[in-house]
Amino acid sequence: MHYKLTEEIIALSDSQAWNFAKLEWDFNFAYYSEDLQTCLCGHYPIRNICVIRNKKNSNQTEVGNCCINKFLGIEDGNKIFTSIKKLKDDNSKSMSAEVIDYIYNKNGISDFEYKFYVDIYRKRNLTPKQLAIKVSINDKFLAFTSYETNSHFNRINLVLKWAENNSSFDKDFILSLKKNCERNGKLSEKQKMALENIITKFKIE
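User: That's the sequence. What structure does it adopt?
Assistant: Structure tokens below.
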């Protein structure tokens, strides 16, 4: 399995030497899949999945959280998955401080929601209104780290990657979809249909 992972990562990297190829990659996104997935190394089943991005050529790929820790030395997903598990069990609990920063920096929550969460982070007794807002923010985090949201991002990034070599294509609409997905955690049915129509029309693969 380790050999398959290194082979796949090297194929997507500029360097053909593993010790250098693995340094080209950064953590980009994490999501929890309700459906069982297969890791890049071939291991099945997995649910905790990290999306990593190559700093040199902008390639993206998905790796199971265990492999990203063990072989790439990237541990960013650990606290995210801990918070996902905790909130799935009880969505009135709190995300870690690092995860609050993560979801905010990814535009998954608003300035108000971020400041509110920081303000009530250490409070044990919340008013019913405060608790309702906190639960709403927690639910946004769970939606943002869902398989559905990630699949939308993948399709959007597919078009943006294609557009790099097709300068006549106007990217404004696709960029607006990306911002909308970051803000709402998903696309509407109408937006999904428009995105798929573009992919079909231009035969983007």
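The CA atoms of residues 70 and 187 lie 34 Å apart.
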